[in-house]
């Protein structure tokens, strides 16, 4: 393994220590070593915004702690849900008495741990409501949308939910905004190489050189098609053809777009991909209002990319444009 | 009637801890074949912490099970923490007010535990998970009690059904969890969770039979 | 090649098209397709700040175009200097009449092309002065500092030079500030895997699995030592032991730090590395004033990392803290 | 005295273009052994654009060389653009005001060109670069002129020295450019730049000898 690690079992601990040191202007540790919080959390009078998930997806999840974004994050082992305790502690760190919006991704482990954490929080009188991201089109047919996984679209869910909370929204309003964000968001990924969990030491799944996997998940969950590797333009077309009809996005729509690398793909190539995606959307009369190209939601050193689109209305635009400051996402206010 | 005292039951949980510790590498090895090879690590971490905590504690069976359940919920993320955490928490709750553990009390314990895990994890028989051990083991126990067999006999039936359940996963195709990625390729090897579940059920049965003999 | 590209010869063109689309709030194309400029350049009354270099180092170089950073950038082929024409055109796009500070890295091709571009600009009456980054400690002994290459320390050179220009510094003042920045900056890199230039199709150099190359350059230039791969903590120690004595950085110093990935190393691991670097610096009484951990200067899909430290004084601190907004670096003002 | 007219010299540059085009793949192949395999691509790009531009142009030798030099500076980055760009620009400048090209004019041209490249690139003999062709070729030409041999004989001497210079790089260890990474492993193969430089010198000599014969 050509990796920069100490003990493979300790990568999350070591990473968290470095992260807290590097970003002490934004984040703070808490009494639970697996929970980080925004330095000003709980923000008085504001609904708390919490997320959490397995590690190895940097900037997700802790990279989205910050001003007008998430207040506290529960941190799991690599590719493994945080404990119920961590979610519960994150709720406590984020709650200012206005309740907590827990905005997380649709994975079996996370669902179970959040559910148990909410029970614990209820005993303390902390009101927690959830939005479960399910933007990954390839992970289940449209009729079974509730089974779909959450992927890079979660970034929009946090941005919108975080902004609504920052503007003084009530818990129900924050939940409604975040739910609207994810309901209007669709994603798809293409995987080009697998990745290796340090404690495991060998790739978790296989992608044969010369092939690519369309619709792959963030942990190597199977996609919809394995085929010969295509040109960037053809990849863009496959992605657009999966994402656009699903919502559907239609002529006249304005969208926000994320093209995220999976970790090891050179950022140059993400721009090559975005170039064609934007062109294909324009051909369909769909206008890109704002785009985010870079590593926003990764899977260790996987190669490949995800494409995410969120259909906008005036409210979502205003919330998207609100200033925010985190390691993973910095937006200057207008 | 066969029974043992709740206050003598801590040893049951200590034996569970020992069982997992002794099988740590084996569990990871099994998980490595079609999973990510960390099942032994995940389980060992939680069970060992529980062992430390119980070592010098004055706890009865209920409190010991509760400690185990709580530790699993606190220390193991993923699916195993909440699933096994719920399993042992429910067991603990079902015997909290029982000074003595007899075959009816344990029937409540195991059925409540199964219900909790099933509700939380939503896996069905045949999905190639620990449910393929837990469901038949509980059914076998229930059937033995219905047939009015002794506590010990019911425990032995439960243990035997768990072993068979584990073996049955070998021929299954995974429909839940990581291994489901492999489709047909997941056939031919045991499911890691069902291996650990079988070990836990067997250990529970053996410990209780030993206590009954005292 | 598991990559997201169209024609391997056209990766730079395709990337530039996507980049301009994604960042039209910051950059603009120019009449030379190999020159991008800040949308407000030339900024009236401000010294122009220009850089340039080979492609494949994203965010470098075009990712540092933006507010209070670079005004125009000359773009080369992958790992190959831009043409003299491109540098010359970048000078023209950046110049508001106050002269141009060309802040670039010490590579044979860049030196030659900048030199020829300055001659061309002189004919037009554009005054151009240069700072040549040579922060890479491993690339030559201290006595031959002028032979050293420029690596991630260039980011500090641009930040400081760009800030000085933004605050109204004259050409000589901007040059002095940027020179001061680079004179106080030292870097070193460790390479873990090689990379493949798309048009070439196979790795350009070799790093055997299980080994690492200490002091490697951004294009695979040979380092000072090839050894068995070490733990992150040991890598941190090797890097600190190369960088600290060279300036030297001493007890009581305050520094800014960059820990940059080379492209394919998971960002998680950069924090693991930073954690130990910060600890080792603290042990020596050197305080980290500000740190930047992430992909700031990469080499396609190389694995590995660089460590850069800049010794600060009050002027450098003020310039470092000035707000800036680019794809690669966003700093919120205090 | 042997000479040809500046205004007839465009063909010399067109032949240079043809030479590079015909050897594009070979140059990349040589560069691939110890470099990054793009030397043919880099050279062909610039020379082909120059060929297009000259095709229908009414240009003398000086203007043709200037076009080539300018295109290389404009179209090829890296080191090759400025080095060969300077080479041809300096040649162009040295014959700008000369209606006729004779052995003294060419002496000025080649020496000025060498000086420009040397000043810019700072490579020494033995560094395993195109300087190992350019320096001995120029010296051989100078020596022949000193010995008062004919223009044609001097060009032939230059051509022969270029070939020998190219061959000499085979035994060298690269000290400049990409290949220097390989250290001892760079020994045993030709330097790509010296191969292209030898082709250019040979083409120059052949074209001029042909013009002299007219
Ligand atoms: N929903 C579920 N219900 C019951 N058991 C499950 C469920 N999901 C997974 N499992 C069990 O979890 C086991 C894997 O556990 P482990 O390796 O510790 O976690 P992970 O898969 O996250 O690495 C599987 O072998 C399976 O028996
Ligand atoms: N400073 C220099 N002076 C003279 N020739 C040089 C110098 N640096 C490099 N070269 C020549 O450049 C050649 C490589 O050219 P090319 O492959 O086109 O560029 P790159 O090395 O950037 O890929 C080398 O074979 C060498 O002859
Ligand atoms: Mg796991
Ligand atoms: Mg596992
Ligand atoms: Mg090259
Ligand atoms: Mg080359």
TrEMBL record, chains A, C:
| Protein name as annotated | Dihydroxyacetone kinase DhaK subunit
Q: Which UniProt keywords apply?
A: Kinase, Transferase
Name of a matching Pfam family: Dak1
Name the GO terms of the biological process aspect. Answer: glycerol catabolic process
What is this organism's lineage?
Answer: Bacteria, Bacillati, Bacillota, Clostridia, Eubacteriales
Q: Which InterPro entries match?
A: DhaK_dom, Dihydroxyacetone_Kinase
User: DhaK domain spans which residues?
Assistant: 7-329
List the PROSITE patterns hit by this protein, alphabetically: DHAK
- Gene Ontology molecular functions: glycerone kinase activity
Q: Which domain of life is it from?
A: Bacteria
Q: Which GO terms describe its cellular component?
A: cytosol
- State the organism named in the record: Thermoclostridium caenicola
TrEMBL record, chains B, D:
Which residue ranges does the record assign to the DhaL domain? Answer: 7-206
Q: Does the keyword Transferase apply?
A: yes
GO MF entries:
glycerone kinase activity; phosphoenolpyruvate-glycerone phosphotransferase activity
* Lineage: superkingdom: Bacteria
Per the UniProt entry, the Enzyme Commission number(s) are 2.7.1.121
Pathway in which the depicted protein is active: Polyol metabolism; glycerol degradation
Recorded catalytic activity of this chain's protein: dihydroxyacetone + phosphoenolpyruvate = dihydroxyacetone phosphate + pyruvate
Name of the top EC class for this enzyme: transferase
InterPro entries found in the cross-reference section: DhaK_L_YcgS (IPR012737), DhaL_dom (IPR004007), DhaL_dom_sf (IPR036117), Dihydroxyacetone_Kinase (IPR050861)
Going by the UniProt record, its keywords in alphabetical order are:
Glycerol metabolism, Kinase, Transferase
Q: What processes does the entry annotate via GO biological process terms?
A: glycerol catabolic process
Q: What's in the GO CC field?
A: cytosol
Q: What does this protein do?
A: ADP-binding subunit of the dihydroxyacetone kinase, which is responsible for the phosphoenolpyruvate (PEP)-dependent phosphorylation of dihydroxyacetone. DhaL-ADP is converted to DhaL-ATP via a phosphoryl group transfer from DhaM and transmits it to dihydroxyacetone binds to DhaK.
Query: Subunit composition?
Result: Homodimer. The dihydroxyacetone kinase complex is composed of a homodimer of DhaM, a homodimer of DhaK and the subunit DhaL.
What name appears for this protein in its UniProt entry?
phosphoenolpyruvate--glycerone phosphotransferase
């Amino acid at each position: 393994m050509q990796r920069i690690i100490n003990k493979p079992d300790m990568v999350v601990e070591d990473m968290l220590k470095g992260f807290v040191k590097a970003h002490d202007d934004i984040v703070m540790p808490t009494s639970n070593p697996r929970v980080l919080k925004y330095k000003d959390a709980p923000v008085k009078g504001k609904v708390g915004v919490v997320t959490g998930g397995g590690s190895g997806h940097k900037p997700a999840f802790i990279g989205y702690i910050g001003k007008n974004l998430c207040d506290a994050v529960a941190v799991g082992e690599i590719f493994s849900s945080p404990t119920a305790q961590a979610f519960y502690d994150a709720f406590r760190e984020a709650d200012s008495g206005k309740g907590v919006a827990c905005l997380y991704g649709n994975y079996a482990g996370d669902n179970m741990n959040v559910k148990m954490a909410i029970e614990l929080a209820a005993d303390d009188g902390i009101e927690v409501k959830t939005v479960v991201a399910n933007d990954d089109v390839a992970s289940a047919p449209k009729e079974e949308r509730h089974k779909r996984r959450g992927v890079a679209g979660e970034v929009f869910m946090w941005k919108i939910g975080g902004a609504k909370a920052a503007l003084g929204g009530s818990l129900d309003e924050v939940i409604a905004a975040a739910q609207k964000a994810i309901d209007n968001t669709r994603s798809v990924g293409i995987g080009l190489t697998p990745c290796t969990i340090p404690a495991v030491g060998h790739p978790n799944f296989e992608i044969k050189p010369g092939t690519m996997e369309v619709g792959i998940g963030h942990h190597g969950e199977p996609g919809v098609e394995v085929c010969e590797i295509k040109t960037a333009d053809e990849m863009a077309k496959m992605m657009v053809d999966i994402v656009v009809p699903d919502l559907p996005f239609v002529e006249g729509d304005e969208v926000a777009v994320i093209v995220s690398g999976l970790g090891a793909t050179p950022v140059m190539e993400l721009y090559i991909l975005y170039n064609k995606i934007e062109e294909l959307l324009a051909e369909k009369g769909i206008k890109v209002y704002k785009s985010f190209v870079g590593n926003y939601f990764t899977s260790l050193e996987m190669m490949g990319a995800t494409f995410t689109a969120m259909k906008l209305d005036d409210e979502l635009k205003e919330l998207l444009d609100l200033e925010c400051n985190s390691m993973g996402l910095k937006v200057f206010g207008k | 009637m066969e029974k043992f005292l709740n206050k003598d039951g801590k040893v049951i949980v200590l034996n569970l801890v020992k069982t997992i510790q002794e099988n740590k590498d084996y569990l990871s090895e099994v998980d490595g074949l079609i999973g990510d090879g960390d099942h032994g690590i995940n389980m060992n971490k939680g069970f060992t912490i529980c062992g430390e905590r119980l070592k010098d504690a004055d706890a009865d069976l209920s409190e010991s099970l509760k400690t185990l359940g709580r530790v699993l919920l606190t220390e193991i993320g993923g699916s195993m923490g909440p699933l096994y955490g719920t399993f042992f928490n429910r067991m603990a709750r079902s015997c909290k007010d029982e000074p003595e553990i007899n075959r009816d009390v344990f029937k409540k314990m195991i059925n409540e535990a199964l219900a909790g895990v099933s509700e939380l994890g939503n896996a069905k028989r045949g999905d190639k998970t620990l449910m393929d051990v837990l469901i038949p083991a509980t059914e076998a126990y229930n059937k033995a009690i219905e047939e009015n067999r002794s506590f010990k006999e019911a425990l032995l039936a439960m243990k035997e059904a768990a072993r068979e359940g584990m073996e049955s996963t070998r021929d299954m195709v995974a429909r839940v969890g990581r291994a489901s990625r492999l489709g047909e390729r997941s056939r031919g090897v045991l499911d890691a969770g069902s291996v650990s579940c079988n070990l836990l059920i067997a250990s529970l049965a053996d410990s209780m039979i030993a206590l009954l003999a005292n």
